[in-house]
Amino acid sequence: IKEYAFAPTTSSVRVGDTVTFRNLDETEHTATVAGMDALDTGTIKAGGAGRIRFTKPGRFAYLCVFHPYMKGTVVVTTP
């Protein structure tokens, strides 16, 4: 997370992988998968990091709840 954007905006991982979101901004952010409260980093403080482990395949759109224009997608495939 840098300059109020997720980079890359689309990532591909395998089932069971954990994605780490590093916050390089000077404000708090989240990475939250819409409609699935269990897939949420919680608040990531400036300079901090949050993680989400993906346990099933699919396309997971996420956003920052504080800045909903910040969006991204994780594509999860089976090994």
Question: Could you explain the architecture of this structure?
Answer:
The strands form two sheets. A four-stranded mixed β-sheet has the order 1-6-5-3, with no helix packed on it. It is mostly beta strands and 79 residues long. It contains no helices and six strands. Helix content is 0%, strand content 38%.
Write a concise keyword list for the protein shown above.
mainly beta
Total number of β-strand segments? Answer: 6
What would you call the shape? Answer: globular
Let me know the largest β-sheet.
Answer: 4 strands, mixed
Sketch the topology as an H/E string, one letter per element. Answer: EEEEEE
Instruction: Kindly estimate the percentage of residues that lie in beta strands according to DSSP.
Output: 35-45%
Counting DSSP H or I runs of 4 or more residues, the number of helices is 0
The percent of residues in helical segments reads under 10%
Average pLDDT rating = 95
